[in-house]
Design goal:
Length: 326
Amino acid sequence: MRGITTAMALLAAIITALSGSVPARAQDNYPSRPIHIIVPYPAGGIVDIVARAVTEQVGRDWKQTVVVEARPGGNSNIGTSAVARSEPDGYTWVVTGPALLVNPDLYKDAGWNAARDFRCVGLAVWNQSVALVHPSMPVKSIGEFVDLARKRPGEFNFGNPGTGSSIDLSAQKLFQVAGIKLTNVGYKGQPQALIDLMTNLMHFEIVSLELALPHIKAGSVKPLAVFTDKRVPDLPDVPTIAEAGFAEAAYVPWYGIYVPAATPAPLLAKINAAINKALQNPDVQRQLSLANIPGKPLSLDELAALMKADQQKLTTVIKTSGMALQ
């Protein structure tokens, strides 16, 4: 009996050793097959463009194929939850914004928990945005608009491109800080909302800078403040939201690159290093600089701290704004 037990123990040890050596070899050879990048938003949008700029450069550096797939739906829940459930082998990434951090607080069936299910391996870009009104609105600054909105609560419409989106979160924070109430009108994305602002169906919106700039220059909309850390060269006379007197509402959303949390540490380090290298590539910098602030190389620990801080900040915005769980 003792001999059988010893033999079984030895066999178990051999099996354990062999099973552990397979992932180790796979890690040594990584990446040995194409990398699959999920973008949980429509193709051609800002997230898709950012994802391709960074990850395709990683592919060139690695001499490995990178496949970028747009998988929109459910306010990014469909694509993001698919990555949360994927194998933690380094071959499936997701590129997304604040929705990854806040959607579990907004949707009962989001399908993931940010802290438990994901590790951030790179910061691709900070997305600048601008507060806009129709040119006929009798205000010249965000302060004047706030004063007007305080006198007429609920009378002005806010074109919301998506509950829990970076734009929505920026707006809700501003409304809280300014003490104003606008009527929320939901849209499926920014383009249609912006069209309705230009035709004066909406009264106030916050729009991604790259989408808004052509219409600002054409005089179709009036900029009041930019949600950036410093003034934008294309709009030198437009103050930042902090300069306008609402520093507590200053929030510049960022888009990160994430992998499943159980991805082995050596792969996390390798992916993080590759993304940081790509972010320093001049061509990538140029692509990311179109109305945005290019991401900068950050360590895994720095990214984890940023992810945690933003999640806490945005969760507070959600709770105090009264956004309903859907």
